[in-house]
Amino acid sequence: MDFLEKLDFMMKRYDLNKRTLSIKSDIPYTTIDNWYKRGYDGLKLTTLRKLSGYFNTLLDFWIKDDITDPNYGKSSGFEVEFPEMEHIKKYRSLDPYGKEAVDGVLDVEYRRCREEEEPPEGEEKIVRFSVPGFLLPMSAGTGQEAGQEYPEDYTLVKAPPRGTSYIAPVNGISMEPTYLSGDLVFVHACEEIRVGEIGVFFMDGQQWIKELGDGVLISHNPAYDPIPMRDDIRCQGHVLGVCDESYFE
Q1: Are 227 and 210 in contact (CB under 8 A)?
Q2: CA 206/CA 184 separation, integer angstroms
Q3: What is the pLDDT of residues 12-36, one digit of tens each?
Q4: Euclidean distance between CA atoms 167 and 135, whole angstroms
Q5: CA separation for the pair 230, 152 (Å, rounded)
Q6: Within its chain, how far is the Cα of 144 from the centroid?
Q7: 8 Å CB contact between 229 and 193
Q8: Alpha-carbon gap, residue 114 to 91, rounded angstroms
């Protein structure tokens, strides 16, 4: 829909004609009439703001032909503010893995905020934290097949480390004594970590937990040799620590 098609639609929706639209929106009648006679290439931003203000739409509705919903960017009585629109634009540019990582963090923080709300008067406040978790382990040894999804949520009784995206188990002894086989670890999904930090890495179709060294992946167990970094090795997250028994009832 172009600008005039949208204008016709909105005038019909609100039972307006050019004259009544002019009066209600404070846009001169001649301006509105000339859009139909001479075109609207010279539309002024101030005029668009008046239209948007009167019809309660976002500017994008009038500017972009592919946006045909007058309620675009609005839901449940609130408008999407500019910083939020920037977040949406960035989200749409992510690949599926990036979107999954953002969704995981958003779900954790949303649940945390909901669960921290004050209970009705007279009821005891019980705080729970729900964090998505992988069932299959990451390897601290011979490699663990990647491609798994979150099969379950872990319910915690204290807050996970800030930035936690998910929880995953460890399998193998190459990261001993820092991480033992069977440990659950908190992971912040990200594509880069600093040298000296421990991360989750995708390599040869498998997921590994290792420390990032200078051009190598390091195991904390001295029985395992460093693994040289290659262009096809990708960081998938930063390990934040162990999810021990104190996090559970």
Answers
A1: yes
A2: 18
A3: 988 999 999 999 999 999 999 999 9
A4: 9
A5: 33
A6: 26
A7: no
A8: 23
Segment 208-227, tens digit of pLDDT: 899 999 999 999 999 999 99
Top-confidence residue, 213 or 122: 213
Residues 6+ apart with CB under 8 A from 189: 97, 100, 101, 104, 105, 165, 166, 236, 237
Task: Tell me the pairing of strands 206-212 and 144-145.
Answer: antiparallel
Contact 70, 61 (CB under 8 A): yes
Half-sphere exposure at residue 99, Cβ-oriented, CA atoms within 13 angstroms:
8
Integer Cα distance of 179 and 185 in angstroms? 8
Half-sphere exposure of 158 (CA within 13 A, CB side): 8
User: Structure tokens of 131?
Assistant: 């964090």
Residue 156 forms beta bridges with which residues?
Answer: 129
DSSP the chain: --HHHHHHHHHHHTT--HHHHHHHHT--HHHHHHHHHH-STT--HHHHHHHHHHHT--HHHHH-TT---TTTTEETTEEPPHHHHHHHHHHHTS-HHHHHHHHHHHHHHHHHHHHTSPPPTTSPP---EEEEE-SSPEESSS-EE------EEEEESSPPPTT--EEEEEESSTTTTTS-TT-EEEEEE-S---TT-EEEEEETTEEEEEEE-SSEEE-SSTTS--EE--TT-EEEEEEEEE--GGG--
pLDDT at residue 147 in the model: 47
Structure tokens that stand for 77 in this block: 């009585």
Question: Taking the model in full, what pTM does it have?
Answer: 0.50
Residue 203's DSSP bridge partners are 206
